[in-house]
């Protein structure tokens, strides 16, 4: 790696006649190009964007989660751990008492940075109560990334009146996340009711021919509502991340 | 095969002492069982039920369709041919001028028997215009089997108000058939709006991850509405057949 | 939300000249439509239909099942819980001593309402003894919803004589439910023997290329008997629900 | 259906004492709710949003496309037809000479409304030249909906330098659409280079184990870049629609 | 059910003039036909064929296996239980001390009938040591059904010389069973070396893209050797059963 | 390659003292082993077994089929071509006028060898008329290989009485081939009615979720009848080949 | 883009005091990094490696193939087009008379560069004659890239002696490519016979459950021979490319 | 089996006139050919190639692993056990104290033979930390087989700069192994950066639509980089084995 300082020093030495221009060219040509070009990228992306650090806890021991969490928190960043059980939380809390646990979302969060005004408005919908873990993962993660979140739960398409009763509320949102398992029909119905981008999250809720979320995934990919894109099965965090990206774009333009 | 007459004759001979009872027992024991038991079944099922004869025309030449159609019509039964093109119809019409062609349904029908009062009420819904061939196959077939059919088309879930506008109409029906491709969400929504059995027919409408109707099929099998069962992909005729069975049961009880 | 009383009051004020008709129109137009239109739907569907409340217990703790069960029972409704183990039953029974457990069906039921005469006749068939949990779920649920149920078990197609011996019995039924795993051939054979709608329930019984019920599911969807529709894998309850819907339709017409 | 005029008239009659308030309440309660509530929704969504009308031409004859196109154009809206061949264009052009054909995108467009300033910036990437039809469908559709589109084509991940050379350009975009077939790896790489939402469009490009776009679809759903959501296989139009939704949200806030 | 005795009695009464022949005909016509026709079939098939009774133990408790085993043994038949663990064997042995356990095959057997001379010759091959449980299930079951079994194990195609060394031995067999997991190539190679029917049994041995035996199953179905048919994944018993059927046919003809 | 003559000559030379025994050992050790061991195998298998030569015509031109057919016929063997159209037959017949075409089976056959007494008895069943091409391929091929074939067609499980009427006939057969598409249930039912090995052939007949024969294939692999093995989809020839193998084994023992 | 010359000039100007070192640093930091780092990569990879240019002709018109071919040939490179039909060849030959067509491989080649000594030895095996197009694509492509190719065709595992006869020949090869469809067993057998890397190419040869090459693909991925890796279905060119890579590595070391 | 000594003795007896040459020919012709031809192969392949013996420990008890390990080590060979847990290691270490455990790789190794100079250079890449078990299995196994291994970990495509920083290092390698789960995009990117054969290993890392490594597997098979072949899911050992084969070929030629 060559820092800006080292580069400057080399150029000064060349100007001083200590090394020839051709030597500098040679040296620069053989440098890993990213030594220069990637200076900005070297700042870790999430830090640069002001987003929290994230740990995917599935398959990690409580100690591992705790250790990574602690290390990330040391930088002053907000930190969140997804798919974390209570044992992992206990291990984190032992070192970082201000960390919080969100049981329904299976998440640990630590807010350290000054909170800005909300980014914009996100509605998170869940078709049934079994979809709540995924929906809450989306909601908590989005809040942690600065979004104002409106939760609209238990509005499956078989009981349409409950969904219709929330129509005006959801039409206010800049982005809508819809979590549904089984046949995954909710995003199509919601997509027809709002004029905002809808991020559909298939959940692994269901049995038999639900095939672990495959039925919902295929349903959402084939939605007859055109304003829908799809995240991976059970990927509430990913949906929240994209929603936050969209909201940031809005604020970026507002403040530009 | 042993007819009732032959059986009677044998018993008379036994009464006359010409053959011994044990001989009769022996003979009856060794008969192919169906000689006795299946007398009722020997009457072809569709004839016995008063249902039309049906020809599945896909993969048959116009001449083959025409030939089978003609033979079936000879018995005086109503006849219908599904998946039939205009060429097949021309071949049928040449021999049976009173046959009718239903272009949207790709069906040929011939009504020969006195029409009874309608069996009961069936609503046939289609999500989009591309689902019409399947929906019309269901509607025409059901009418041919005696149902009064209410068509409710182009009521996909992305434009919910059109569907809601038909709520009262569809709530009158004894049975509801719902045809939908793509994500196949319509049956779930309809299922929540009616208190009748819903027969869902996935169609092969769609592209990409629709996989020829698989997405809609899985969606319907996993419906969160409990009053739904599912027919094979594009099987409008099968749905109509089951609907007619249900309607017949109602009338059977009414007239019992 | 606007209650009938509020609406009446508003109209009275208009008649009194306190507000103009156009103001009323404006107000009504902007109301969430469901405030008015969904009055009937606000009555929970199952209550309105006189059907029992249902709890899907899989993935719920004994305490959760017990709590929901108790709350539902408080309304005076019949209640049933599917996929419930004995621990859940113990928790329910502690609060509702009159609740009953059906081990083979893995169901808890509580009958509180006056029992009406049976809705009509339902035959529930199971191909093998391994299919019994699904068949019993169908049978118990259907009985709980008012059907008279005839159980015909262990009549797999490899031993045809046992099935044929039940032919007349099953031909009496208004609706037939057929549960089968492995190759799922039983509905096709039964479908050819009865003149009633057949609801096929694939079970996850089998191994190897049974793929958790997929083989049976595909077999049933492709049945050569036209009077068959299909429920989700292992979904005995869903089949019973549709059967009950059909039987209700029959009685509804009879008493109309 | 009850119009505003009819409603007004009824209220006037009530004020005149011709009918009682309770009668009005009764009548309103029994109205299909959408007669009142859906007035706003009755305006077709695309018109209301100022978006063009769209025709999916696959499976339609040139005459059908032309007929629908003409009817839609009559309302003064912008119109576009996707998956349209040259024969369809000829049929459209015969009636609407100002219609344009975009060969690479297989689209027909007609711009009739005054063009507003671009909505914001969208980058459309394509991995290979075979992905161009899908990418162009996205680009043309997005332009037709008001976006300023930057095309970055032939930047597959096997030749990374071509992609890296476009880094700064694509980092300007508010939204990024990435079209790729085969292994569908491009969105993951692009996702790591931009701080904007990325809409991944798997294409059916490839052979063998590409399985008509399935490999690319699965790859994109499982992307290790968190800022990615996925559209259906070959669904360039859908991606453009969602991108336009996002851009509209930005402008909506800017002008609010 | 009507026994032969009851039938005889009825006929005697007719001869005595107590009942008319037409009454007998009526009665016989309405009998479930199988009461007469299936007398032979009523003898349980396995008993009739002299084959052992079989219990599939997977999913059954040790007590259930023991109970069924005991009941079957009471008839004097040979009995075998597949997929049985040692606990089940202990339970069986407590009641039937002469029962034997075959650990590698996971089978319990009880031989009670006089052993006939072997039916003929069966070769059972296994590709690897992990395929032994399936191969031993086939071998033990076939022996229990009367076959002389030659075991040829650990002859996977990657070490061809071990297989070639057994060529002459396997060419003596009347039937060959080949068990293989992973790519399932062994039956194709063996098929080319023998002039006997080969029954291929895919096993669930393997990992990753073996997909629980699917790779081996597809490989065997597509074998380039024409003398191969395929059993279900891990179905050693089924293969043995078919092999025994073939061997019985040979002896049947020899002794005819 | 070393012929027997060359080997003999070498040994004679050793005996004559021209070469040393150790040289012979060395030479033999380094020979490709198959030079000695495979002499018997070098006789083409089908010729050695007295089976006809077979050409799989799909994907071959009429000229190619004709050329291969002619070359094979030159050896005096019986020859058959499967999946052959009339054009291919015309090309064959031009050179071999005694060749015969079997339209339903899509096969060309040429019998040149003296016909032996039939090998034994094979029953070929087909569920529906659409399964006939596969069933006829099996029947014609088996006849060509020496079997006496009993055809039992159009005996699908939805019309059980037609199948039951053939029970005694099919119980005579040494081997049974059952061809069925759609749900593929026929082999399970037949398997329960006969005490012979059943070879199930799934056909690609069906539509929608039949998935080109996959539904039938899975159904047959999971049959509850234990005497069933399965051939590839539409592989009538393969089933006939295995059946012939079984029948040959019977005769081999009879004549041993 | 900044060339070495421009960089040198800038540095000279800095040395001359015309611009400050900090300006140079700034300029370099903001350069697209690849302007410097990718100089070597800018030489098209295939040219740099001395490999031919390649055109995948499927889905391209004869004119398009011809045009791209001509353009590539202009650089003096060797050029090859895969999946090319005779019409494409005619179009190419019209402009480049020295181009050659390889019918079995469906390839057009043009050799313009001086031929080096062969890279090393590659054996290309094909299981059946239907696999030849893929095998020839591999062979011709590998020859075009400098390999000495030994073709060993029609050595399917059902006729093992033909394969064994080629054992010594194939053991000489540095790399082995094995093309097989149907069950794809050949690579496993070959893998056990050679001590070289084996590249397995599944072909789409087969029918029914071959599923377009999926059965062969899964078989090869699960091979019990450890020296096997797998290319995409029908991807003869890709296998040749990797083989050439391996051979180049050998020569690279030899000449290093 | 006939040993060289027995063969020599037979030939001496022939020379002595005790047996005739024709008797020798007869005897040799009837020998299992491999008795002679396979002498070289009878040396176990891994021993012959100087490769370590390998035990796949999954599904084996600690005692079984220990027993096999001990037996293999007795021959003086290097031994390695893959997928081995610490319990298995403890059992091995009790008998072979010099055995080593590699926790990340889940491997036990025992080096007994004199270590030769490294075979050549292998780079092993892993996309994420979850892919390390597979990558380490590849790395440790390759080292055990004599390769010099360069580990490049945590270089997923979403953080391209980390990968680019390793470009020159990886370009030195003779072979590259790339392990990646989720979308499996890393091999495509790496393939474009090196001029060496790339062996892609899909891992089962991921969730939802990753389907246990299927998404990564399909992605790698469809890579747009032509220098890639693919191993089975999680098969780090297999990739190392092929890499070692390639490196041996290089050294073989160097020392030839």
Layout: helices, strands, pairs:
The structure is a homooctamer of 256-residue chains.
Chain A: H1 4-15, H2 21-30, H3 34-37, H4 39-42, H5 45-49, E1 53-56, H6 62-73, E2 79-82, H7 86-95, E3 100-102, E4 107-110, E5 121-126, H8 132-144, E6 148-153, H9 160-164, H10 167-171, E7 175-180, H11 186-191, E8 198-202, H12 214-221, E9 228-230, H13 236-254
Parallel strand pairs in A: 1-2, 5-6, 5-7, 7-8, 8-9
Antiparallel strand pairs in A: 2-4, 3-4
Helix pairs in contact in A: 6-7, 8-13
Overview of this protein structure:
The structure is a homooctamer of 256-residue chains. By secondary structure, chain A is an alpha/beta fold. Helix content of chain A is 44%, strand content 16%. The first copy, chain A, contains 13 helices and nine strands. Chain A has helices at residues 4-15, 21-30, 34-37, 39-42, 45-49, 62-73, 86-95, 132-144, 160-164, 167-171, 186-191, 214-221, 236-254, and strands at 53-56, 79-82, 100-102, 107-110, 121-126, 148-153, 175-180, 198-202, 228-230. In chain A, strands 6-5-7-8-9 form a five-stranded parallel sheet. The first copy, chain A, has a four-stranded mixed sheet with strand order 1-2-4-3, with helices on both faces. In chain A, helix 12 (214-221) links the parallel strand 8 (198-202) and strand 9. In chain A, helix 6 crosses helix 7 (86-95) and helix 8 (132-144) runs parallel beside helix 13. Chain A is globular and about 80 Å long. The first copy, chain A, starts with a helix and ends with a helix. Residues 29-44 of chain A have low confidence and may be disordered. The B-C interface holds B 37, 45, 48-49, 54, 120, 174-175, 192, 195-197, 199, 217, 221-222, 226-233, 237-239, 241-242, 245-246, 248-250, 253-254 and C 45, 48-49, 54, 120, 164, 174-175, 192, 195-197, 199, 217, 221-222, 226-233, 237-239, 241-242, 245-246, 248-250, 253-254.
């Amino acid at each position: 790696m060559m820092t800006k300082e080292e580069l400057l020093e080399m150029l000064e030495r060349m100007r001083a006649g200590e090394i020839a221009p051709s030597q500098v060219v040679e040296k620069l040509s053989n440098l890993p190009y990213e030594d220069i070009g990637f200076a900005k990228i070297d700042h870790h992306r999430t830090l640069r964007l002001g987003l929290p650090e994230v740990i995917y806890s599935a398959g990690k021991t409580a100690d591992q989660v705790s250790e990574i969490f602690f290390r990330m928190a040391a930088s002053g960043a907000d930190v969140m751990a997804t798919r974390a059980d209570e044992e992992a939380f206990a291990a984190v809390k032992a070192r970082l008492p201000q960390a919080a646990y969100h049981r329904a979302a299976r998440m640990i969060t630590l807010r350290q940075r000054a909170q800005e005004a909300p980014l914009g408005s996100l509605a998170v919908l869940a078709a049934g109560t079994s979809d709540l873990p995924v929906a809450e993962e989306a909601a908590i993660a989005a809040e942690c990334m600065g979004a104002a979140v409106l939760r609209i739960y238990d509005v499956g398409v078989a009981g349409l009146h409950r969904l219709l009763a929330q129509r005006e509320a959801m039409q206010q949102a800049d982005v809508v996340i819809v979590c549904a398992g089984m046949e995954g029909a909710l995003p199509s119905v919601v997509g027809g009711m709002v004029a905002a981008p809808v991020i559909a999250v298939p959940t692994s809720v269901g049995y038999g021919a639900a095939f672990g979320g495959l039925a919902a995934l295929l349903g959402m990919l084939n939605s007859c509502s055109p304003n829908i894109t799809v995240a991976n099965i059970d990927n509430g965090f990913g949906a929240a991340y994209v929603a936050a990206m969209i909201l940031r774009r809005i604020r970026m333009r507002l403040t530009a």
